[in-house]
């Protein structure tokens, strides 16, 4: 699907502010992809579709997850992470995406996981550091992304897990495993 048509489809499904976020994530992902020798076209596609399911009804996301061999453990966690798995399915079924790396980048952009590809890391990091984000520590995360994708990934997953722990929110097991892998790696 050509980029202009894809943009129109994404824009139809998201509120204005979320669509603007998607555009900023896409620009950030393309920049990171260039810097870290990741195919820019794949980064653009994954970034454009990463939040495609963000505003679906939870019951509809649940149905997609249950019917498509997704990790049903996530259904016992807050529905805020469900859109990543639902988005992967929509990317395949409705947009014809069949590249496993692009699909995994969409699927794991909220939780991370062990063994992430460079593209998966680019999308995870871009989602967190895009220019519209403004929270304590954002500049440190952006600076880490200037150094290496692994340093950025470690900083970003540590920030995300720390944020959830500080709020006494549940943390999906993939996120803990991703955090541990990056702490041990660097």
UniProtKB/TrEMBL annotation:
<dbReference type="InterPro" id="IPR005249">
    <property type="entry name" value="YqeK"/>
</dbReference>
<dbReference type="InterPro" id="IPR006675">
    <property type="entry name" value="HDIG_dom"/>
</dbReference>
<dbReference type="Pfam" id="PF01966">
    <property type="entry name" value="HD"/>
</dbReference>
<feature type="domain" description="HD">
    <location>
        <begin position="18"/>
        <end position="132"/>
    </location>
</feature>
<keyword id="KW-0378">Hydrolase</keyword>
<protein>
    <recommendedName>
        <fullName>bis(5'-nucleosyl)-tetraphosphatase (symmetrical)</fullName>
        <ecNumber>3.6.1.41</ecNumber>
    </recommendedName>
</protein>
<dbReference type="InterPro" id="IPR051094">
    <property type="entry name" value="Diverse_Catalytic_Enzymes"/>
</dbReference>
<dbReference type="GO" id="GO:0000166">
    <property type="term" value="F:nucleotide binding"/>
</dbReference>
<dbReference type="InterPro" id="IPR006674">
    <property type="entry name" value="HD_domain"/>
</dbReference>
<dbReference type="GO" id="GO:0008803">
    <property type="term" value="F:bis(5'-nucleosyl)-tetraphosphatase (symmetrical) activity"/>
</dbReference>
<keyword id="KW-0408">Iron</keyword>
<keyword id="KW-0547">Nucleotide-binding</keyword>
<keyword id="KW-0479">Metal-binding</keyword>
<dbReference type="GO" id="GO:0046872">
    <property type="term" value="F:metal ion binding"/>
</dbReference>
<dbReference type="InterPro" id="IPR003607">
    <property type="entry name" value="HD/PDEase_dom"/>
</dbReference>
